[in-house]
Specification:
eight-stranded antiparallel sheet, 55 strands, 43% strand
C-alpha cells in the first residue's frame, strides 16, 4: 500500500489541477490525470461548465441531498442514454458501505437491476429486456413498504417483494447519481463495481424533477466529480436566421429561439400571428400586473393543450425565487393554479386531467388569501395561501406560454417546461389581453390552426375566436357572418347585440354630456337582463375617476355617476323594462342631485357624496356598449346592450342622429 501511495505521489508531482481539482493515476494508462469538481472540466479542470444534462465518463458521480420523503416508499423515473452495459445509475443507503438499508438502480449485463433492503433482506428486480446503448431509455421504479415494481421502456412492469417483515427504509447517505464515492465498498450490495457511463437527461423522485446544476439559487446538486455536459456541442453547427438564438433543448437536440414575427426550425419564415401557438420553448412577455391585483385577481384563459406539462402564465415579485407570485400551469395533465402572498403558497389542482388537443376554459379567482380554480364543468377547487398576508404585489413582467428564464420562477413552482398548445384568450380582471399587439417580447410563437388565421372577416371586420369557431366584429355599414354584406339601406333604428357599440366625439354632443348638468332621454326595446346603454368616463378608469352611465344589471336599470368624490347609484327595479316592449328612460342630473324616470310615471332620486358638482370625462360617449366593457367600467357592467335604441335626446331638445353623427361603431344593424 505504501509503495502504491508513493508511486501515486511521484507520478502526480508537478501535475497541477485547477479550481479545486486533484491528481490521481489513471489505472488503465498509468498516467496522471485531474479529477474535476462539479462545474469544471478539461485536462486541468481549467474550464467552467454548467451542468444541465450530466455526462458520466465512468469515473464520477453527482450527489443530491438525502431523501427525506422515502421512508415508506418512493417513485423514481430516469431518462438516460448508456454507453456501457454495466454501471451504477442511482444509489442511497443508511450506512456508507450499504450494509444496512439501501436502494440502487444499476445496469448489469445490459439489464436494469433495481434493489432495495428494508433491513431484513433484499428485493431484487431485473428487467426482461436489455437497454439500448447509445439511445434514450426510460426506467421507472417504485417501492411501497417492502413491495416493489420495475419497468424499462415499453415492457410490462415487474413486481416483487423484499424479505422479512420490515417495511421502512432509513436513508442517511446522500443520493448518488452515476456512481458512488467508494464503489468498492458497495459493489457487493449493488451488483456492480462500475460507475455509469453515458448521459442522464431527467431524474424524478416522488414527482420532484431534479435540477442537475450546482445547489444554491437554482440547482439541486451539492457535489460532483468528473461530470461533463452532454449538450455542450449541440449548437456548434447551427445558424439560426433573423436574429434567432440557438439553445440546447435536451441533451442532444437544439432549438432556435425565434423572435416574434419569425418561425421555422431556423427562424427562416416570417409569420403574422393571429392566435398564438406555443412549442414548449416559447413565451410572450407583457407588462406585469404590479399593484393592480393587490386584493383581488380574476383570470380567464381559453387554451388547447397538446402536452401534459407546461407553464401557462406567470408573474413574480423578484428574480431570486422568493416572494409573491401567481402561476398557472399544466402538471401531469391537470391544471394547477398557485399563488404566494409572501408567506407560503396556495396550490390548487383540478380534480380531473384535461383532454389534450381540445379547447378548455380555465378561470381562477383570488380574494385575499382565498383562491378558487374552475376548469370547464369540473367541480371548483378552493384553497388558502399560508401565513397572514392578504395582498399580492407583482413587480416583474407577466409571461404567457412559458418564461424567458425559468431560474427566476419561485422555488415553489418547480417547472422548467413551457406550455405546448394554443392560447386564444386571456382576460385579467375583466381586461382582455391583446395577445400579440400588447406583447413586449416573445420567442417561438407561431399560428394555431384556426379559421381566424385565414382572416375570414371582410371589409375591415375583426375576427374573434370562439374555441374552434369564430365571430366577426363588423364595422359600421357592414353585417352578416363575415361582414360581407353592405347594409342595404341607411340604418334608421340601430340594433345592438352585446358586442355592439356606437362611439361619439362630436363637440355638440359631448358638451351636453360633461359639465354641471345632463338630461338624457332614451327610447329603448330589449329582452336582455344585462347591458350597457350609455357611458362617458375618464380613461384609464380608477376607483375615483369621473364617469356617468346608464345600463342594466340582472334586470335592474341603473343610473350611476361619480364626480370625483363618491359614486351615486339610482336604481329602477319595480317594473319590468326587459319585456320586449318600447320604454322611455329619462335620466337627469344637476350637480350632485339626480333622478330617474320610466315611461313618464315612476321617479327615483339620489345624489352623489362629497362636494364636487362637475363631470369631467375624456370627450367620448359610447352608446349600446364599448370594447372591454367589464374592464373599462370596473365591472359595474359586464356586457353591451342587446336590443334597439329608437331615440337619444340630450338637454331636453337635442336629438342625436345615432348613425349620422357617430364617429365609429361595431356590429350595429337595422332593427327589424
Amino acid at each position: 500500500q505504501t509503495s502504491k501511495s508513493s508511486c501515486h505521489q511521484r507520478r502526480c508531482r508537478g501535475f497541477t489541477c485547477r479550481n479545486g481539482g486533484y491528481c490521481s493515476v489513471d489505472p488503465s494508462s498509468g498516467l496522471p490525470r485531474c479529477n474535476c469538481p462539479l462545474g469544471t472540466r478539461g485536462k486541468r479542470c481549467g474550464k467552467d461548465v454548467e451542468i444541465r444534462y450530466p455526462k458520466f465518463k465512468g469515473d464520477g458521480y453527482l450527489t443530491f441531498p438525502v431523501l427525506r420523503n422515502a421512508y415508506k416508499g418512493f417513485t423514481i423515473t430516469i431518462q438516460f442514454k448508456p454507453d456501457d452495459t454495466d454501471g451504477l445509475l442511482l444509489f442511497s443507503s443508511e450506512k456508507e458501505d450499504a450494509s444496512g438499508d439501501f436502494f440502487s438502480i444499476a445496469l448489469i449485463n445490459g439489464h436494469i437491476n433495481f434493489r432495495f433492503d428494508c433491513g431484513t433482506g433484499m428485493a431484487v428486480f431485473n428487467s426482461v429486456s436489455n437497454v439500448t446503448l447509445g439511445e434514450w431509455n426510460y426506467v421507472w421504479a417504485q417501492r411501497v413498504d417492502n413491495h416493489g415494481w420495475l419497468k424499462l421502456n415499453e415492457e410490462m412492469p415487474i413486481e416483487g417483494a423484499g424479505q422479512g417483515n420490515y417495511t421502512r427504509i432509513t436513508l442517511r447517505e446522500d443520493l448518488y447519481l452515476g456512481g458512488y464515492k467508494e464503489m468498492q465498498k458497495v459493489s457487493g450490495r449493488v451488483g456492480t463495481h462500475h460507475p455509469f457511463t453515458g448521459c442522464v437527461e431527467e431524474l424524478w423522485v416522488n414527482s420532484y424533477k431534479y435540477d442537475m446544476r450546482r445547489a444554491g439559487k437554482v440547482g439541486d446538486a451539492i457535489h460532483g466529480l468528473n461530470i461533463d455536459e452532454c449538450s455542450i456541442n449541440v449548437c456548434g453547427e447551427i445558424q439560426c436566421e433573423n436574429g434567432g438564438q440557438c439553445m440546447a433543448r435536451s441533451a442532444d437536440k437544439h432549438v432556435c429561439l425565434c423572435p416574434m414575427g419569425t418561425a421555422g426550425t431556423l427562424c427562416q419564415s416570417r409569420v403574422d400571428v393571429h392566435i398564438p401557438s406555443f412549442d414548449g420553448h416559447s413565451y410572450i412577455q407583457y407588462e406585469g400586473l404590479h399593484r393592480t391585483t393587490l386584493t383581488y385577481t380574476e383570470i380567464e384563459i381559453i387554451l388547447k393543450p397538446k402536452y401534459l406539462n407546461g407553464l401557462i402564465l406567470y408573474n413574480g415579485y423578484t428574480t431570486d425565487r422568493k416572494g409573491d407570485f401567481i402561476a398557472l400551469l399544466m402538471r401531469e395533465g391537470h391544471v394547477e393554479f398557485s399563488f404566494d402572498l409572501g408567506t407560503g403558497p396556495a396550490v390548487l389542482r383540478s380534480h380531473e386531467p384535461v383532454s389534450l388537443n381540445e379547447w378548455h376554459v380555465v378561470k381562477v379567482y383570488r380574494t385575499g388569501m382565498d383562491g378558487v380554480l374552475e376548469v370547464d364543468d369540473q367541480e371548483k377547487v378552493e384553497a388558502l395561501s399560508k401565513g397572514a398576508y392578504t395582498q399580492l404585489t407583482l413587480l416583474l413582467e407577466l409571461f404567457v406560454g412559458g418564461h424567458k428564464n425559468f431560474d427566476h420562477l419561485s422555488k415553489h413552482v418547480n417547472i422548467s417546461d413551457g406550455f405546448r398548445g394554443c392560447i386564444q384568450k386571456v382576460v385579467i380582471n375583466g381586461k382582455p389581453l391583446k395577445l400579440t399587439e400588447e406583447a413586449q417580447d416573445g420567442v417561438n410563437i407561431d399560428n394555431c390552426q384556426h379559421p381566424c388565421v385565414g382572416q375570414p372577416c371582410m371589409n375591415g371586420g375583426l375576427c374573434e375566436p370562439i374555441q374552434d369557431l369564430y365571430s366577426c366584429n363588423c364595422p359600421l355599414g357592414y353585417t352578416n357572418t363575415n361582414c360581407e354584406e353592405i347594409v342595404g339601406k341607411q340604418i334608421t333604428v340601430p340594433k345592438f347585440q352585446r358586442s355592439s357599440y356606437l362611439k361619439f366625439v362630436n363637440p355638440n354632443i359631448i358638451k351636453r354630456v360633461a359639465g354641471k348638468k345632463i338630461d338624457i332621454q332614451m327610447h329603448i326595446q330589449t329582452s336582455d337582463q344585462n347591458g350597457l346603454l350609455f357611458w362617458s368616463g375618464q380613461e384609464p378608469a380608477t376607483p375615483s375617476s369621473d364617469f356617468l352611465a346608464l345600463g342594466f344589471n340582472e334586470g335592474v336599470l341603473q343610473f350611476r355617476f361619480n364626480l370625483g368624490s363618491g359614486e351615486a347609484v339610482i336604481q329602477h327595479n319595480t317594473s319590468q323594462l326587459t319585456d320586449g316592449n318600447v320604454h322611455v328612460i329619462h335620466a337627469r342630473r344637476v350637480g350632485q342631485d339626480a333622478y330617474l324616470s320610466i315611461d313618464g310615471t315612476e321617479i327615483y332620486e339620489g345624489s352623489s357624496p362629497g362636494k364636487y358638482k362637475y363631470l369631467n370625462t375624456n370627450s367620448e360617449l359610447y352608446i349600446g356598449g364599448m370594447q372591454d366593457v367589464a374592464h373599462r367600467t370596473r365591472r359595474r357592467f359586464t356586457t353591451g346592450f342587446t336590443g334597439c335604441i329608437y331615440k337619444l335626446i340630450l338637454a331636453t331638445d337635442y336629438e342625436v342622429n345615432l348613425i349620422g353623427q357617430t364617429d365609429s361603431g361595431s356590429n350595429v344593424s337595422q332593427c327589424g
